[in-house]
C-alpha cells in the first residue's frame, strides 16, 4: 500500500495478474449505512489525508444491494463519491467496462460516478436492459427513487452493441420494472432515419409480466372495402384470471367490424375463451355490377352488402376423478361470415362447422355414466342447420351376468362368460330443411312434386322448424356370450343384440277414392324394435420359409382367416306392424290396383327384408428376417451372435366378401381387396379395389347391365370384374435431421399471434435444411357403357420446406390434377430471420383467395405493432 498527499495517477493494467487484494471496512457512524467491501486484482492504494482509495485491475465494490465492477475504481469518503472507468491494456485497448448493479438493475458504461449517500449517479455512454428492450445513452443521471434520465438516447429490442434499429429521442425517462417514456421520437433502421415517429413514446416494462390494460394500435391499408384501420381496440385486464379485448375495423366505403374476446382461467379447474364478432359488409360496387352483368361476370362471385355475426366459445376443464366434466366448443354464425372474415385457409375452405356443449359424469362405485349435451351443425354452402337439443345418454359398461346375480366366486364354467351392457340415448333433433312430404301438415299427399325447402333461422319460422323436428329414444342391449376355443386352434364367438326405438310419431295411411290420393294420419307414440344373432370363427396360421442367404435369413407369412354369420328376421312382415301395404291408385283401363309398402315411421324402422348372410375375410402379413447392416459379423453365416432385424414386405393384404342366403338374386357380395405397406422406409403404398363377381351384359345401345350369372371362368382365367381401384403413393423424403427429437422451444419465433394473419404460419423451424413430401393418387373406374370412356383421376400433391441458409427458409404446398390439367389450392411462403426482425412473404397464386402478403416486423412482443405490411388478397381484386 502507498500513501501520498496528492491523488495517485491511473496506473496502467498489468498484463501479469497479481494476487487479489481484498479489504473490508466497518461502517463508521455517519453517512455510511453499512460495510463497504472492495477488492482488486493488481493493487489498492490509500490516500489517508484525502480519504481516497484507488482500486486497480478487476476492481469490485459491494455496498448493501449496490455492486460495481470495473478496471479502475476510486472511492472518495470525503465526498461520498464512487467513480469507475476503463483502463488501456498493453496493446492500448480499453478493457474493464464498468458494470453497475443496484436493486436488480444492471448498467454497463464507459464512466460511472455514484454518490452512495444521496444514491444519485451520472453515467456516460451507458447500455442498460429494461424488460425486453435495451437503452443506449450518451449520459444518464439517476436519482434517489431509482429512476434515471437519458440524454441522446436510443431504445431498441436488438441485443447487439450496434443495433439494427432503434427509436431515437433526445430525452428518455425510465422507471425500472414499470415503463420507459420519451419525448418526440423517430424510428431509425440501419442508421437511416425514417419519418415514422410520434410526439411522445410509452413502452411498458413490467417486471412480473402481469397482464395490464392498454390500447391496441391498429394497422392500416386498402382493399375492396376501401381504406381501412384494422384491429384498433383496447384490452381490459380485469384481474389475473379474466381479460377482455374489444377491437374493431373501419372501412372508408362504409363497412365496419366489431369483435370482442374474453379469456378466463381458473387454475386446476378450467380455462376458456368466448368471443362475438359483428360485421357489416358494404359492397355497393358489387351490388350495382351484379344487377348489370351476366352470371359469367366476376362480380357474381362477390357477396351482396350484408350484416353477419359469429360466436366462438371454448371451455376446457381439468379432469378430476369422481368429478363431472363440463366442456364447450361453439363455432357458429351467419352463413357467409367466415368467407368474408376468414382468419385461415381452413376456415375459408371448410364447408361446415360444428358446435357442442356437454356435461358428462361417471357415477362413483357403479357401472353407470351419463352425458347431457347440445349440438349444432351448419353448412355454410347450403345454409342447412341441424340442432340436437338436448341429447341425453345413459350408459352401463359391460358387466358379467354371473357376478351380477351371484356372490359365489367364478369356477370357469362356460356360462360365466356371459355379459350384458346397456345404452340409452334420448334426443330431440331439429333442422331447417323442410321435406316436401311434410309441408301440408297432417293430411299430406304422397307423391306431390314440391321440392324440399331450407328455411331461414328466424322468429317467423321457429314454429315450423320445431314441428319438423323429431324426438326419439334408442335403447340398445349388448349381450356377450363369451369366446371359446374349438379344436384347439379356432376362436368361436357367438353374439346376440337387441335394440328398441321410441318415436313421437306413427303414421297410418288410407286411400281417398275421391281425390285418388293417399292421406296420412299421424298418431302420437310409436315403438319399433329389432334383434339379431350371429357368430364368428377365426384362427391364425403361421408359415416360415428359411432362405439362409447372405442377408435374408427367412420369410414369414401370417394368415388370419375369419368367417362370420348373422341372422335378422324380416321386420317387414305384417305381424310386426312396422310397415303397411297401401293402395296408391287404380289403373282406369285394367282396373288393376297399385299397392306400395310404406314405413309407418319417419325414421328408425328396421329393414323390411330377411337377412341371413355369411361374411368372410383373409388378412395377410408378410415380413422378412434379415441381418442388420450394422452387424460386424454379417458375412459370417455361422455366427451365433448375428444380429437380425425384421423388414415388412406387406403390412396387411385383406380380401373380403359375403354371401346372403336370403337374397333372391346377386347373393354374392362384391369382393374387396385392400393392401398397405411401406417400401424403402419412406414410401407408403395403399391400394384398394372392388370386384364384381357377376357378368355385365351389353344391349344394342352399348349400355351395360348386371345379370345374375357369375363372371368366374377358370378356363379363361377370369375371376371377377374390376369395378374401381384406387392407388395412393406417399413419399416422405425428409432428411434424418427431421427425425431428431427435441423438447427445446425455438428462440426465433415471430410474435405474430395477435395478427391472426392466415398467410403466416404459427411455427417456423429454421434448423431443418429441407423437407419434402409427395402424394400421388390414381383412381380408375371402368365404364358400363360403350359410349362413355373409363374414369381415370390422377392427382399429385407436394409440400415441403427448403432452408437456403440458417436465416432463409421457403415452404410450399400444392396439388395438380392431371385430369383437368389444373393446379388447385397452392401456397408459397418465404421467411427471413433478420436477427431482431422477421420478414415473411406469402403468395397464393390460384383460386378466389389468390394474393400475396409481405410483412416485416420487430420480433419483440413489446414492439409487435412496429411492422410494415403490404397485402393483396382475393377481395382486393
TrEMBL record:
Highest taxon of the lineage: Bacteria
Stretches assigned to the LPS-assembly protein LptD central domain: 180-694
InterPro entries: LptD, LptD_2
Spans annotated as Disordered: 1-24
Pfam families attached to this UniProt entry: LptD_2
Name used for this protein in its record: LPS assembly protein LptD
Species the sequence originates in: Pontibacter saemangeumensis
Amino acid at each position: 500500500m502507498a500513501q501520498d498527499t496528492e491523488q495517485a495517477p491511473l496506473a496502467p493494467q498489468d498484463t501479469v495478474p497479481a494476487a487479489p487484494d481484498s479489504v473490508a471496512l466497518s461502517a463508521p457512524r455517519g453517512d455510511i449505512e453499512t460495510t463497504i467491501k472492495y477488492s482488486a486484482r493488481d493493487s489498492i492504494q490509500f490516500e489517508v489525508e484525502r480519504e481516497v482509495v484507488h482500486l486497480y485491475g478487476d476492481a469490485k465494490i459491494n455496498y448493501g444491494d449496490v455492486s460495481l465492477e470495473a478496471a479502475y475504481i476510486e472511492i472518495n469518503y470525503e465526498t461520498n463519491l464512487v467513480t469507475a472507468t476503463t483502463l488501456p491494456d498493453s496493446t492500448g485497448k480499453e478493457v474493464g467496462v464498468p458494470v453497475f448493479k443496484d436493486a436488480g438493475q444492471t448498467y454497463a458504461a464507459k464512466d460511472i460516478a455514484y454518490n452512495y449517500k444521496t444514491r444519485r449517479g451520472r453515467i456516460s455512454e451507458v447500455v442498460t436492459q429494461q424488460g425486453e428492450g435495451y437503452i443506449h445513452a450518451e449520459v444518464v443521471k439517476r436519482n434517489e427513487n431509482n429512476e434515471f434520465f437519458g440524454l441522446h438516447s436510443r431504445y431498441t429490442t436488438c441485443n447487439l452493441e450496434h443495433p439494427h434499429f432503434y427509436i431515437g429521442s433526445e430525452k428518455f425517462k425510465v422507471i425500472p420494472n414499470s415503463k420507459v417514456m420519451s419525448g418526440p421520437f423517430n424510428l431509425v433502421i440501419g442508421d437511416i432515419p425514417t419519418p415514422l415517429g410520434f410526439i411522445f413514446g410509452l413502452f411498458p416494462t413490467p417486471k412480473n409480466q402481469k397482464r395490464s390494460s392498454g390500447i391496441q394500435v391498429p394497422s392500416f391499408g386498402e382493399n375492396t372495402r376501401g381504406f381501412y384501420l384494422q384491429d384498433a381496440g383496447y384490452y381490459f385486464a380485469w384481474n389475473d384470471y379474466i381479460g377482455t379485448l374489444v377491437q374493431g375495423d373501419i372501412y372508408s366505403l362504409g363497412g365496419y367490424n366489431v369483435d370482442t374476446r374474453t379469456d378466463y382461467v381458473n387454475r386446476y379447474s378450467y380455462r376458456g375463451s368466448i368471443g362475438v364478432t359483428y360485421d357489416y359488409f358494404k359492397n355497393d360496387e358489387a351490388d350495382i355490377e351484379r344487377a348489370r352483368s351476366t352470371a359469367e361476370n366476376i362480380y357474381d362471385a362477390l357477396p351482396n352488402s350484408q350484416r353477419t355475426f359469429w360466436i366462438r366459445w371454448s371451455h376446457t376443464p381439468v379432469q378430476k376423478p369422481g368429478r363431472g366434466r363440463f366442456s364447450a366448443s361453439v363455432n357458429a354464425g351467419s352463413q357467409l361470415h367466415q368467407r368474408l372474415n376468414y382468419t385461415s385457409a381452413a376456415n375459408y375452405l371448410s364447408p361446415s362447422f360444428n358446435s357442442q356443449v356437454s356435461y358428462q359424469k361417471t357415477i362413483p362405485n357403479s357401472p353407470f355414466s351419463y352425458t347431457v349435451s347440445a349440438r349444432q351443425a351448419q353448412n355454410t354452402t347450403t345454409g342447412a342447420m341441424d340442432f340436437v337439443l338436448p341429447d341425453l345418454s345413459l350408459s352401463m359398461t359391460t358387466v358379467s351376468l354371473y357376478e351380477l346375480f351371484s356372490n359365489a366366486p367364478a369356477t370357469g364354467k362356460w356360462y360365466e362368460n356371459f355379459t350384458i351392457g346397456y345404452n340409452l340415448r334420448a334426443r330431440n333433433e331439429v333442422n331447417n330443411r323442410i321435406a316436401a312430404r311434410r309441408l301440408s301438415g297432417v293430411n299430406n299427399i304422397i307423391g306431390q312434386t314440391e321440392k324440399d325447402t331450407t328455411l331461414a333461422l328466424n322468429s317467423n319460422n321457429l314454429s315450423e322448424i320445431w314441428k319438423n323436428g323429431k324426438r326419439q329414444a334408442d335403447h340398445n342391449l349388448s349381450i356377450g356370450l363369451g369366446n371359446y376355443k374349438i379344436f384347439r386352434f379356432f376362436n368361436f364367438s357367438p353374439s346376440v343384440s337387441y335394440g328398441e326405438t321410441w318415436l313421437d310419431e306413427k303414421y297410418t295411411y288410407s286411400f281417398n277414392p275421391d281425390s285418388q290420393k293417399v292421406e296420412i294420419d299421424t298418431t302420437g307414440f310409436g315403438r319399433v324394435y329389432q334383434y339379431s344373432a350371429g357368430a364368428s370363427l377365426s384362427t391364425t396360421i403361421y408359415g416360415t420359409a428359411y432362405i439362409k442367404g447372405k442377408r435374408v435369413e427367412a420369410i414369414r407369412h401370417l394368415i388370419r382367416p375369419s368367417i362370420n354369420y348373422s341372422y335378422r328376421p324380416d321386420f317387414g312382415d305384417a305381424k310386426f306392424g312396422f310397415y303397411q301395404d297401401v293402395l296408391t291408385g287404380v289403373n282406369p283401363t285394367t282396373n288393376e290396383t297399385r299397392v306400395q309398402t310404406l314405413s309407418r315411421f319417419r325414421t328408425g324402422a328396421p329393414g323390411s327384408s330377411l337377412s341371413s348372410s355369411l361374411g368372410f375375410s383373409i388378412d395377410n402379413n408378410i415380413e422378412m428376417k434379415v441381418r442388420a447392416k450394422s452387424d460386424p459379423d454379417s458375412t459370417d453365416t455361422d455366427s451365433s451372435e448375428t444380429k437380425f432385424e425384421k423388414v415388412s414386405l406387406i403390412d396387411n393384404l385383406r380380401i373380403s366378401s359375403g354371401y346372403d342366403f336370403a337374397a333372391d338374386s346377386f347373393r354374392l357380395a362384391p369382393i374387396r381387396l385392400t393392401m398397405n405397406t411401406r417400401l424403402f422406409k419412406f414410401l407408403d403404398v395403399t391400394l384398394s379395389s372392388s370386384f364384381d363377381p357377376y357378368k355385365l351384359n351389353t344391349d344394342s345401345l352399348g349400355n351395360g347391365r348386371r345379370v345374375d350369372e357369375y363372371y368366374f371362368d377358370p378356363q379363361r382365367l377370369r375371376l371377377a370384374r374390376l369395378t374401381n381401384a384406387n392407388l395412393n403413393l406417399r413419399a416422405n423424403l425428409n432428411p434424418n435431421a427431421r427425425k431428431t427429437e427435441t423438447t427445446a422451444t425455438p428462440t426465433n419465433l415471430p410474435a405474430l399471434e395477435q395478427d391472426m394473419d392466415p398467410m403466416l404460419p404459427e411455427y417456423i423451424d429454421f434448423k431443418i435444411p429441407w423437407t419434402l413430401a409427395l402424394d400421388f393418387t390414381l383412381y380408375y373406374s371402368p365404364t358400363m357403357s360403350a359410349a362413355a370412356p373409363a374414369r381415370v383421376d390422377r392427382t399429385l400433391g407436394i409440400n415441403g420446406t427448403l432452408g437456403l441458409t440458417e436465416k432463409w427458409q421457403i415452404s410450399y404446398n400444392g396439388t395438380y390434377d392431371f385430369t383437368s390439367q389444373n393446379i388447385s389450392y397452392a401456397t408459397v411462403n418465404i421467411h427471413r430471420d433478420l436477427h431482431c426482425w422477421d420478414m415473411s412473404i406469402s403468395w397464393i397464386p390460384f383460386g378466389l383467395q389468390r394474393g400475396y402478403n409481405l410483412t416485416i416486423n420487430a420480433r419483440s412482443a413489446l414492439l409487435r405493432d412496429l411492422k410494415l405490411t403490404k397485402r393483396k388478397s382475393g377481395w382486393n381484386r
